[in-house]
Design goal:
With 72 residues, the protein is mostly helical. It is built from 3 helices and no strands. Helix 1 crosses helix 2. The protein is elongated. The model has no long low-confidence stretch (mean pLDDT 84).
């Protein structure tokens, strides 16, 4: 392969990683919501470790589709 093409692929890969980190920093609750979405038999309405009851309710409010049964 041409060295120019390899550099372009490398820059695109690095840019995707940087964008992923920026999104994870700006929207940290998305990761928790994604982890909670697949849990079976766990009460996802209870505050998770590191959250107060009030902050957990606020978190759930940002993800109404994932926590619809908790927000009624």
């Amino acid at each position: 392969m041409d060295k120019k093409i390899i550099k372009i692929i490398l820059y695109v890969f690095i840019a995707l990683i940087v964008i992923g980190f920026v999104l994870a920093i700006l929207f940290p609750g998305v990761i928790q919501s994604w982890k909670d979405s697949g849990k079976e038999g766990v009460d996802k309405c209870k505050p998770q470790p590191g959250y107060t009851e009030e902050s957990w309710k606020e978190h759930m409010g940002h993800h109404p589709d994932a926590y619809k049964e908790c927000l009624t």
